[in-house]
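Sanity check

After download, print the first record. It should look like this:
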Amino acid sequence: MKTIEVVAAMVQVEDLVLVVQRKEEANAHNSLKWEFPGGKVEQGELPEDAVIREVKEELQLDISPVEVIGRVVYEYPDIKIDLTLFHCALLDGLPVMNEHNDLRWSHKSLLNTFDWSAADRALLELAGWLD
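Expected structure tokens:
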């Protein structure tokens, strides 16, 4: 099974974290699931550069990766992803939905109320945020 390197951004402003909901998809395992914004790392691209590019493309936000929160390898029925989550500072912009069904600013204590994609849920559990 092919493994794809993926990055995600936990964009935090004060006590709030930005989360996005995927659009309805044919792949039921990710359809309308919540996740942190991000996407695939392109050939030869550094993960830090990929997360900056993806968040700019998806939400028109300028961010700066601060640190790696965690990394998981998760196997879906059709693909395996190697997902790295970065804690990111918001430098500029207001989020514009280009590729998502919905977006929310949520307090970290409420992250357990979202229906997360399995890989993002694994990262949240690793970070201890789904208690």
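If your output differs, re-run the checksum step. Summary of this record's structure: The chain has one domain: 3-127.
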